[in-house]
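Q&A FORM
Asked by: J.P.
Topic: structure of Cytochrome P450

PROVIDED:
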Amino acid sequence: MDAVFTSLGLLFAFCVSDYLPWLRGLDLDGHEKVVKEANATVNRLHDTVIDERWRQWKSGERRELDDFLDVLITLKDAQGKPALTIEEVKAHSMDIILAATDNPSNAVEWALAEMANAPEVMAKAVEEMDRVVGRERLVQESDIPQLNYAKACIREAFRLHPVAPFNLPHIALDDTTVAGYHVPKGSHVILSRIGLGRNPVIWEEPLLFKPERHINMAEGGDVVLTENELRFISFSTGRRGCIASSLGTDMCMMLFGRLIQGFTWSKPQGVAAIDLSESEHDLFLTKPLVLHAEPRLPVHLYSATGI
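REPLIED BY: S.T.
REPLY: Here is the structure written out as tokens.
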């Protein structure tokens, strides 16, 4: 995980060779060496798993689909032939690891941290969970459409606490004008996630955690985690937006849903309020979130296949 976060941490780093291409290869910033070493660490671990799983399917040892990796390996084209080579499976797996490691976990951690300081918000989310799902079974993906307040909590976490300060850099392909500003062809364009989500022109009391705002603006009464109006960014946006936003929604909501359904969360004894300050190096919490968790469901639901 350290290697994954090392690579992610350099996505927005300034690189001299981006502006002076003839310096490429010299690695003046030292970024290339660091990223190569981090990627080698990740590949050494994840390639071993994929190679073994690929062998099991090709030899016939494995016949049942147990996870996403099995799905990738067994995909067929229109002629019934394997749709992906092993290298393509590895590439897709790496994309999923990089895209799905920090965003869902960051949103859920921030949501729980904010809700720990606002017990009335936590109570509303738990009340909705009990009303929609109950306490005799675990929340499932099929319940997500009905959990609008829980989705609003995650949307608010995405808005107020984005996983990264900026989107990936883009280049203007032509001269254009945006909001009265002239953007020359070839300009590097960096979109501020923080600026969007905390814009006081768009958001009333932008620094407050208020999930209700997303209930009020939901079209047709259905809250979704994606944001097409660019009022904030959750899973990227536009024509090159995240192709796995549905998967990202399920990952966020299943993690968040199981946590608030399965446990009563409270601040540790002697802690008046959770410290919501951001790290100096990223937008994660300065200190890992520590809360007191008390089980609230029947014992048999806390099994290896449950929570």
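FOLLOW-UP: The chain has two domains: 2-100, 104-301.
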